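Sharing a chain and its predicted structure for anyone who wants a worked example. Both blocks are below, sequence first, tokens second.
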Amino acid sequence: MHIGYARCSTQHQDQDLTAQREALAALAVEKTRIYTDAGLSGTNRDRPGLREALAALRDGDTLVVTKLDRLARSVRDAADIAAEVEERGALLSIGGSVHDPTDPMGKLLFNVLSMVAEFEADLIRQRTREGMAIAKARGRLRGKQPKLSPAQERHLVGLMTSGEHTTTEVAALMGVSRATVYRAMQRSAVWELNARARA
């Protein structure tokens, strides 16, 4: 029996998974035998769809993926998954080519493909970090926006210091969590201490 596995981590998940499903169907995998993971990186080994696909394998079955990077994005994970497939007495088919761990050339090709997949994942992470650094330098990456404006925060502090309301009441009134109220009060205390120090 052929067991298919498809994964995508991009924003165009439906399109990508549909393309992989069609490619797996062309490789003789029944639609009901295709397991998928959407929105999960190949660097994440703990994937529900992958677990189900591996659990479905029986002696003599074949796990089919369109490309190795759909299965894993690191050399270690690719080797571990291939070993688990072998332990279950099953075969691994990558884009229609069955991986033979006993064949030196096949083993070399598998390792090269694993290294390329890991290299691509590292490049993606590096580009993401560089993009965030550039955006931050240009002021486009401001991080989490505050829940309250400065005026709203002053009003909140005033309500709290009046002693007429509990933290829960003030939080409900301002539409924020109690943790936000506590943080606002802490900032107010720090500002007050700094002002006194400067005076």
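Comments welcome. The chain is about 60% helix and 10% strand.
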